[in-house]
């Protein structure tokens, strides 16, 4: 069980709850989602509560995170996009912290489950659709008819654009889920090799050097992937929100 690379993704019930025949149990996934929100919120609150004119290191990290997401949103959606800043910043911090929490031994990676990433993706696309129709009405449908398209090609282009739009939640969720899942499985497999080979005396310990090196290398790569996937999720969210603000572009 210790070397089972899939065991780390199992959902376990911590507090069984059933309401009206529905299973609403508090699970390890639920606990780590709560922990993710608590850690991100506590860090931002504690590091910015003093509001020092000359920021310390931790306050600088919070301010850099703020400016990083704000700059990303302005570049993708313009100044009008800043109305979505709380939404995008919350998504970025949640994915970022959740990814890094999952790197610790015996911790749970909530972003390795597609139901979580798909729910986040549906939230993004739902926001785009609702705001797009609220702001532009039926003019939001211009999103599916790019400017300059010959009339004869409009039906084909509209079909392609609709399929592309509907595939966004799937692609956005699978990208994050697949990267976190594959990375953690690979890491667990190589770590399992180290443990297994070490049981065969001096020869096994010598042979474990390569998988140990690979484990360290993959761990470093996973740190990069954890940050990169949070950035990719946030920047794609900004691009999709731009469609809600400027559907005719």
Question: Could you walk me through the main structural features you see in this protein, from its secondary elements to its overall organization?
Answer:
- This protein has eight helices and four strands; from the N terminus they run E-E-E-E-H-H-H-H-H-H-H-H.
- It is globular, with a radius of gyration of 22 Å.
- The chain starts with 12 loop residues before the first strand and ends with a helix.
- The strands form two sheets. The chain has a two-stranded antiparallel sheet with strand order 1-4. The protein has a two-stranded antiparallel sheet with strand order 2-3.
- The model has no long low-confidence stretch (mean pLDDT 90).
- The protein has one domain (54-245).
- Helices cover 68% and strands 4% of the residues.
Would you spell out the secondary-structure blueprint of this structure?
Elements: E1 13-15, E2 18-19, E3 22-23, E4 26-27, H1 28-48, H2 57-77, H3 85-101, H4 114-136, H5 154-166, H6 168-198, H7 201-207, H8 209-245
Helix pairs in contact: 1-2, 1-3, 2-3, 2-8, 3-8, 4-6, 4-8, 6-7, 6-8
* H-E string: EEEEHHHHHHHH
Number of helices: 8
Instruction: Give the mean pLDDT.
Output: 90
Radius of gyration: 22 Å
**What characteristic shape results from the CA principal axes?**
globular
How many domains? The number is: 1
Q: What structural class do you assign from the helix and strand content?
A: mainly alpha
**Terminal Cα span:** 53 Å
β content, as a range? under 5%
């Amino acid at each position: 069980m210790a070397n089972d690379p899939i065991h780390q993704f199992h959902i376990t019930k911590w507090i069984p709850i059933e309401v009206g025949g529905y299973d609403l149990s508090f699970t390890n996934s639920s606990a780590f989602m709560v922990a993710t929100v608590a850690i991100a919120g506590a860090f931002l609150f504690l590091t910015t509560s003093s509001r020092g004119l000359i920021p310390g290191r931790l306050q600088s990290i919070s301010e850099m995170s703020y400016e990083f997401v704000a700059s990303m949103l302005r570049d993708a959606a313009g100044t009008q996009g800043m109305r979505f800043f709380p939404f995008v910043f919350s998504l970025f911090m949640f994915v970022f912290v959740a990814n890094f929490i999952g790197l610790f031994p015996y911790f749970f990676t909530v972003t390795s489950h597609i139901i979580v990433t798909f729910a986040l993706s549906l939230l993004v696309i739902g926001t785009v659709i609702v705001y797009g129709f609220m702001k532009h009405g039926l003019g939001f449908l211009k999103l599916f008819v790019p400017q300059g398209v010959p009339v004869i090609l409009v039906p084909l282009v509209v079909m392609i654009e609709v399929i592309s739009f509907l595939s966004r939640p799937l692609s956005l969720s699978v990208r994050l889920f697949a990267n976190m899942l594959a990375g953690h499985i690979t890491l667990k497999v190589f770590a399992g090799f180290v443990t297994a080979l070490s049981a065969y005396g001096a020869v096994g310990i010598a042979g474990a050097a390569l998988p140990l090196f690979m484990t360290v290398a993959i761990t470093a790569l996973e740190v990069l992937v954890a940050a990169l996937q949070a950035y990719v999720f946030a920047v794609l969210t900004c691009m999709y929100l731009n469609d809600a603000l400027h559907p005719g572009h």
